[in-house]
Amino acid sequence: MYASSLREQDARRPGAMTAQAVLATERDPRGRSSRVSVLRSQGALVLRPANPKGPEPLTHRRREVARVMLAAGTAGPIGGDDYALEVRVGAGSTLVLSEVSAMLVLPGPCGGRSRMRITVHVGEDATFVWLPEPIIAAQGCDHEHDVRVQLEPGARLAMREETLLGRYRECPGDFRTTLRVTYAGAPIYHQQLRFGPNADGWRGAAVLGGNAAVGSIIAVDPVWADETPATSAFHSSAILAPLPGPGVAVSAVAPDSLQLRRLLNAGLDELGPPWSTRIVPDRVEHLDDEITEIDCTDAG
């Protein structure tokens, strides 16, 4: 279980909150379905069993899956808060984890850094589909988001991450994100990004290039052990690239959340069946609209 690393000075801040949640699944003894074996929530992190809202193509190899929704019990996280989520997908089971709404990261009334730590372990021959909603880094926030995913041999993964830099026409606060994925003990993906007033060059062409949304989809499938899909620069602001293991990464930047989601889905479509979502049937050429940068020069 994750042990909170909340700094002592933040822990004493008025209203600072700590919250931990644990979710685990297992395959039933008869081997016909997956079920939730552990479901513990605390404070701001609310886990609830769920039913599908529509087709779930990313679980194409499993008929019976466990589905869970994550909801926010309070606003935030805000400055000083420390959240932790632990997910364990048992061997041979399938879990679909989604969220009710976007996460809005806000500054605290007394300052301080907020943190969200997520650790995931996916057992042998298990499948984890994780489709969180965007994280919005509001002006004035100071947030650290850390995700660690450990995949055992034969495990499958489809996970999405999306970050919006500020609300509409708002400059973002300071935001740091780390995503590390290992497969059979070997690292296959490790990315760290920093945005906001105290990060150098984040608005430059090498990072966001004036865009206000950034995201990726990490797909891991053992069938790619011998040959992963080829690199595809399918759009001027998005690319599909193979990972050093049985996986690929779809990365994109966009002016807003809608266009970012379209690009990420288009990246899955590049993989073809059974990964193709076809959620947005239109081609993505229309996303080459002119980007209007947000002027953060006079932001307080």
Describe what this molecule looks like in 3D.
Strands 3, 4, 6, 7, 9, 10, 12, 15, 16, 17 and 18 form an 11-stranded mixed sheet that branches. The protein has a 7-stranded mixed sheet with strand order 2-1-5-8-11-13-14, with no helix packed on it. The chain is 6% helix and 42% strand. A hairpin with a 2-residue loop joins β13 (174-183) and β14. It is mainly beta. Residues 1-12 and 279-292 have low confidence and may be disordered. The protein has 2 helices and 18 strands.
Strand segment count: 18
Count of helical regions? 2
Binned strand content: 35-45%
- Roughly what is the average pLDDT, rounded to an integer? 85
SSE class: mainly beta
Quote the distance from N terminus to C terminus.
Answer: 39 Å
Please describe the biggest sheet, giving its number of strands, its sense, and whether it closes into a barrel.
11 strands, mixed
Radius of gyration over C-alpha positions, nearest whole angstrom: 19 Å
The level of helicity is under 10%
Bulk shape: globular
Give the low-pLDDT segments: 1-12, 279-292
Return the string of H and E elements.
HEEEEEEEEEEEEEEEEEEH
